[in-house]
Design brief:
By secondary structure, the protein is α+β, with helices and mostly antiparallel strands. It contains four helices and five strands. The chain is globular and about 45 Å long.
Amino acid sequence: MSWRDAVPAALRMLLQRDEHVDPHLELLRLGAEHPDVAAEDITVTLVLDGALVTGTVISTEAWERLHLARLGEQDYDLRRVAKEALAHLDDAVEQGRRRRGPDRRFLHLRDVTVRSGQSAYALPTWRGPVAAVGGWTLGGPGRG
């Protein structure tokens, strides 16, 4: 497979008529999810309820890996439960019973900064609903 295999999915995104989905933001999410598209190290700034969220777009799989690692730092047993549940889903996929793909409702970021008013907070990861994004741009905010 090559990056060309992602073109039909990208075309579907651009031609869709769903007024609740920004096709260009969806292309960024799709690029992070598609294994043959080198959509790595793409930084975005999102506007959500007046706050700015800046980070690097990552795949659902990468977010899950980072999330499980952090969850293990907080509660090892809960991490084991979550990891085992995900493993069962993955086994079902391998046996053809179920398809576990990325959830289009969410965008995943790493190395995140959330800015609200004069405050800024660093977060290792972020998962948020695409529908909550009021606006966005490539890159991070500049110093003014």
